[in-house]
Design a protein that fits this description.
Layout (H helix, E strand, L loop, with lengths): L4 E5 L4 H11 L3 E6 L10 E4 L1 H10 L3 H6 L5 E6 L5 E5 L1 H5 L2 E4 H10 L6 E4 L3 E6 L4 E5 L5 E3 L1 E4 L6 H6 L7 E11 L14 E8 L2 E5 L6 E6 L10 H11 L7 H7 L7 E8 L6 E2 L2 E3 L2 H4 L7 H18 L4 H19 L4 H5 L4 H12 L2 H14 L6 H4 L5
Parallel strand pairs: 1-2, 1-11, 2-7, 4-13, 11-18
Antiparallel strand pairs: 3-6, 4-5, 8-9, 9-10, 12-15, 12-16, 13-14, 14-15, 17-18
Helix pairs in contact: 1-10, 2-10, 2-14, 10-11
Organism: Nocardia mexicana
Protein name: 2-polyprenyl-6-methoxyphenol hydroxylase-like FAD-dependent oxidoreductase
Pfam families: FAD_binding_3
């Protein structure tokens, strides 16, 4: 086996999923994560269809994911007086099985932390590829040499920036921002295990959602690109408050509660576009770093499938990254292609009153069921190999 020492950047979902398979095939795995510890709670994520379930089964975590799943949440679009205008069913928003991101990360960490080395509170500062490896400089830890480096560090990936180029060359802004608030384990927010209802208040270019499993509060709004510090929560909350001022229904009460909620997160709706593939030299990207499409509905499933394919191709090629990376690029470019076409902003928060009426009509029509079936087709559109039979493991 070649290239046995590997570094994975990111301990969210894609990173530990990749670590799980690489460790299973005998690689020596280190995971670096800039957060000081696992992040609890978080918004709910979901899996759809046969392919996602098959990977979870092969990871031997499907039963635990199902045990800790959230309940279905129907999103009711209502007017200022609370009258129902349309409903987005929980089967559409929550897939086959939905779980808090923090719970899923914990499951993956529990299955990898005993054999993989986790380095929390640190991040990659520089990469320098050599003839037989990569020299990695960290923000805090001493520099080390690895055979391969994997970027599983999200849509704003530092590994992608260091190995491929600036974010503006690979990330497309989609004209919207979103905010999740209260999505942590210590807010007193009880995750519903039974079917629940969220209420959505929509005006042109804006939607505010109260309740549900994704987060206690969610906001989305159309906007040109904004300049704000990503660590200035107070400034971001002011942006949300100013944007949603004057919206009726429950929104004034939501905005009043907003400063007291933990777990505030705001970011753009953006799409990653890696036209020349997800690999370069001894570096490969997986998850949102490679094929992210914010709130597009397929991110978590793409992450676990991508990790499965990347590790499996490496094992099948006996660690030869030139062979494995080419196969990974080929397989995942096809699988991620259609998932990257979804545009959640224009659907969830149309920019005109006519667009809102059209969306509400669509949600009440039979065509919405067709759209749901198309999502199932996208999530299953891959020939999932049985890699373990062909894998060459480290002895």
């Amino acid at each position: 086996m070649r290239n046995t020492t590997v570094l994975v950047s990111g301990a969210g979902i894609a990173g530990p999923s990749l670590a799980y398979w690489l460790d299973r095939y005998g690689f020596d795995v280190t995971v670096v994560e800039r957060a000081p510890a696992l992040r609890p709670g978080g918004q709910a994520v979901d899996f759809k269809g046969r392919t996602h379930r098959t990977v979870l089964e092969r990871m031997e975590i499907l039963a635990e994911v199902e045990r800790r799943q959230t309940g279905r949440t129907d999103m009711l679009y209502v007017d200022a007086e609370g009258r129902e205008l349309a409903c987005m069913s929980g089967e559409f928003t929550g897939g086959d099985v939905e779980i808090l991101r923090g719970d899923l990360a914990e499951i993956l960490y529990e299955r990898t932390s005993g054999t993989c080395d986790y380095l929390f509170g640190d991040s990659i500062a520089a990469l320098a590829e050599t003839a037989d490896g990569i020299r990695v400089e960290f923000e805090r830890a001493p520099a080390r040499n690895f055979d391969l480096v994997f970027g599983a560090d999200g849509i704003h990936s530092r590994v992608r920036r260091l190995a491929f180029g600036p974010e503006r060359d690979y990330v497309e802004f989609l004209g919207y921002y979103y905010c999740l608030a209260g999505a942590t384990a210590n807010n007193g927010h009880t995750v519903e295990r039974e079917r629940s209802i969220a209420h959505a208040f929509s005006t042109p270019g804006r939607v505010a959602v109260d309740g549900g499993s994704k987060a206690p509060q969610m906001y989305m709004f159309a906007s040109p690109e904004l300049g704000y510090a990503r660590d200035d929560i107070a400034a971001q909350q002011r942006i949300v408050a100013d944007t949603f001022a004057g919206v009726g229904g429950r929104v004034p009460r939501m905005l009043a509660e907003l400063p007291g909620l933990d777990g505030f997160y705001m970011d753009s709706l953006s799409r990653v576009k890696m036209m020349d593939g997800y690999t370069r030299g001894r570096v490969a990207l997986v998850g949102d770093a490679a094929y992210g499409n914010t709130l597009g509905g397929f991110g978590t499933g793409l992450a676990v499938v991508g990790a499965y394919v990347l590790a499996g191709e490496l094992a099948a090629a006996a660690g030869d990254h030139t062979v494995a990376f080419a196969r990974y690029d080929e397989i995942m470019r096809r699988y991620a292609k259609d998932a990257g076409k979804t545009t959640p902003g224009s659907f969830l928060a149309p920019k005109t009153a006519l667009g809102i009426r059209a969306r509400n009509w669509f949600l009440r029509s039979r065509m919405f069921g067709v759209m749901t079936k198309m999502g199932d087709k996208i999530s299953n559109d891959i020939d999932l190999k049985e890699y373990e039979a062909a894998a060459v493991t480290v002895e």
